[in-house]
Amino acid sequence: MSSLARAESLSLLQQGEGSGEGRGAYGPDTAAHPTWQFHRTIRTESVRGALLWCMGFSGAFVFIEPSPYEVVGMLTMLVFGFTGLSLRAAVSPLVLALIVVNIGYAISVVQVSDQTKPVTWVLVSAFLATTAIFYASMLGTNTQRRLDLLFRGYVLGALVASVVAVGAYFHLFGGKSDLFLLYTRARGTFNDPNVLAAFLVLQDC
Fold first, then answer.
1. CB of 14 within 8 A of CB of 75?
2. What whole-number distance in Å separates Cα of residue 15 and Cα of residue 26?
């Protein structure tokens, strides 16, 4: 392991001890074994990083429900939850606002609860609110490293979606090109061309 990686990992360990993140995964007995805890922290963070990369990458594939992003997102949040994820006071206003909004959605959908689309929309909104809280909490520790991994996956996913969209638009995939088009507009690996465009905008920021 390079000295830079070791320094980053030691910094992560110190941040986790100060913020409370990771305590639930190790327990009090590990205080007597700092070296063991150090290496376990590295392994845990590596798994978390891989899942964050996958979460960013899977965001480019939402042509089915549940989408790969939703599956990977649930798995990632569960892993972070079991290995330690602290909810800081600074995130409280966001949590409160999202709870209020989603309660409003839930009340509104009662009148049309016999229809699948409105119920699905409310459930997806609740999931997206949960991921927003997760991102805000997760990025409070080891921020730069985690954000880099998330964006690397995101950029590769955007590249794949773009290639598929352009190829389909010029009918490079033969008869299968229509699967990635909607009313002759390129939608790539998304359900809607407008969603594809919104996903790609971040790459220009």
1. no
2. 15
Cα radius of gyration (the chain): 20
How far are the Cα atoms of 28, 38, 46 from residue 20, in angstroms, in the given order?
12, 15, 19
The model's pTM? 0.76
Q: How far apart are the first and last CA of the chain?
A: 34
DSSP structure class, residue 2: -
pLDDT block averages, 10 residues each, the chain of length 205: 46 46 47 58 88 96 86 95 88 96 96 92 94 95 94 95 94 91 92 91 68
| Token pair of 103 as six digits | 């309660």
Question: 67 to each of 72, 79, 112, how far by Cα in Å?
Answer: 9, 19, 24
Distance, CA of 173 to CA of 175 (rounded, Å) = 6
What is 30-78 written as a DSSP string?
A: GGG-HHHHHHHHHHHHHHHHHHHHHHHHHTT-BSSSS-HHHHHHHHHHH
